[in-house]
Structure formats: C-alpha cells, structure tokens
Design goal:
5% strand, two-stranded antiparallel ribbon, mainly alpha, 261 residues
C-alpha cells in the first residue's frame, strides 16, 4: 500500500473515530432529558397500548444523535473491520465513564455564592437554585449510567458480529442489508439491556418491556430511514480513497487483515 493511501486511510479512521466518540459521549450526557417525539413533529401523542400500558414516543434527547453513532460504526466496520469497531467502542466506553466521573467530581464542588446570586432567577423572575439545577441535570443515576454503558458495549459487539457475518454472505453487494440489519439486531438488545439494568425492581417487567418496545420502534424506524446516509458515506469515502483502493481496504477489513489497527 502506497504511503499516500496509508495516510488517507489513517486520516479517515481519525475522522470517523472523532465523529463516533463525540456523538457517543454527547448522547450519554444529554440523555437525561426526555422529550416528546410526537410533539417535536407536530403530532398528537401516539397512545399505543403495549402489554396494558398506554405508551407514547417519549425519548431521551440522546436518541437524536445516536443514529450518527450507528452510521459511523457501520462505516468503520466496512473499512476497518472488527478490530476498528471493537477498539473504538472500548475507547468510547472509557471516555464516557471518565466524563461521568469528572461530572460527579464537579457536582461535589461547593458553589461560589456570587454565582448562586447572579443566577438565582430565570427570565420570568422565578427563583431557583442554580447549583441544584446543575446537579440535577448532570447527575444521572448510577444504575442508569452502568446500564447505558453495558448496553452500549454489548450493542457494539453484537453489531460488529452481525455486520461481519452478513458481509461474508453478501460480499461487496447489499450494503443496506449488513448496515441496517446489524443495527436492527444490536439495538434490539440495547433497548432492553439498559432498561432492565437501570429500572429492574423499580418498574414491573411488563412496563420495562413496553418501554423497550416503544424505544425499539423508534430505533427500527430511524435505522430504515437513514439507510440512504450509509450509501452517501460510502460514496464519499470511495471518492476520497479511490474506488479501487476503497474496495481493496474493505476486502481486507472483511478478511481481518488490517495492519495499522
């Protein structure tokens, strides 16, 4: 492999890894906010009856950018294979854990009185405690963090396994099948693992399953809708590396013969 191509390949991995890490960490931090999917789109609450529970599409804010993680993960899988995805997933889990450790350390810091006084009212003149707000927003529960990390790692490992199995069956063809199919399988596990770890004993098993199914319907729909973006990413990378070089690198990734990783 020429030195220029090796440099392009390294730059590509750095860019994809940067996008993956940034969005994975952000999704975990902003995930504390729950928003209404229907209201965001201007619809009425869905009111779907699942296992006796009336469920709406109330989702974590992290759900907005998790699809970027899915797409980037599939592109890394396509061009850098199992080693690339596994190593960047472990690195992401480490940085996510590190981020929450730092956040919890800052929560313990005593607030400056002038900071509390300067931020003691909102725009409408209502009084509030800025330090309490900071701690409440950023201080997610320990079980939620552990559940989220466990689900993230399991989902990534399952995704890379299914992707590579489908890659062996499809070769260079049917990118949509291995990209979307691996995401659908991995996110099915992710949807329930995080909920059972975070809320087992808090909610009934039936309610956890109902919430998980609602979340998975959203993830399933998004994975299908974002399939064209996988092809767009594939096209841009092929242009950057050159069609012949891109196919060669993809074949090496499928064969597990990547060298610089």
């Amino acid at each position: 492999m020429s030195q220029l191509l090796e440099q392009k390949k390294t730059r590509l991995f750095i860019v994809l890894a940067g996008i993956f890490l940034t969005n994975a960490i952000l999704a975990e931090i902003i995930g504390v906010k729950i928003f209404s999917g229907e209201s965001t789109l201007g619809f009425q609450p869905a009111g779907i009856n699942i296992m006796g529970f009336v469920m709406d599409f109330n989702l974590t804010a992290g759900a907005i950018i998790w699809p970027i993680v899915f797409i980037t993960s599939d592109l890394i899988n396509e061009y850098f294979g199992k080693p690339g995805v596994k190593r960047i997933s472990y690195l992401a889990a480490f940085f996510i854990a590190y981020s929450f450790i730092v956040i919890f350390m800052t929560i313990k810091l005593p607030p400056a009185q002038w900071w509390l006084d300067a931020n003691s009212q909102d725009g409408a003149g209502n009084y509030f405690n800025m330090d309490f707000a900071f701690n409440k927003i950023l201080g997610q529960g320990q079980r939620i963090i552990i559940g989220s990390l466990a689900a993230f790692l399991l989902g990534q490992l399952v995704d890379v396994f299914v992707f590579q199995k489908l890659r062996k069956l499809t070769g260079q063809k049917m990118l949509w099948l291995r990209a979307t199919g691996s995401t659908l399988v991995s996110q099915l596990l992710d949807s329930f693992v995080v909920l059972f770890i975070a809320f087992y004993g808090v909610f009934s098993n039936q309610q956890i399953i109902a919430i998980g199914l609602t979340n998975y319907i959203y993830k399933f729909s998004v994975a299908i809708l974002l399939t064209p973006l996988i092809y767009l990413g594939h096209y841009l990378i092929d242009r950057y590396l050159g069609k012949e070089n891109a196919e060669k690198i993809s074949a090496e990734a499928a064969a597990g013969s990547q060298s610089f990783l």
